[in-house]
Please model this.
Amino acid sequence: MKSNQGNRRWILLFSWIGLYLMVVFLFLGCGNSPTKEEPNVAERIWTEIIPEQGTATTYGIPLSLDNTQRFIDWFNTIELSDDEQMLRDVALSTLMAPCCDDYPMSEC
Model:
């Protein structure tokens, strides 16, 4: 008799917990599926963070993938003094390289 009464208490307890969770999820809207009008999260973040092509920049060249070669050429022609090289290495040594975690950015 006691085991039946104990089982009933557990069943009642779990039923109340389940009911409580259903109400919470319905109240918070967790049961709603996204609508087709909602943009993809990645697309929404992209539009908030990534500037559009042609956006003005502080260095006077509009943002464009067509300017990639120009930036590569600048990178290959700029020579740093010893002090500038040391400052660059110190600043980049705290960052991990994007290709792997074995080397800092100063070595890539």
In short: The chain is about 55% helix and 0% strand. The chain has a mean pLDDT of 78.
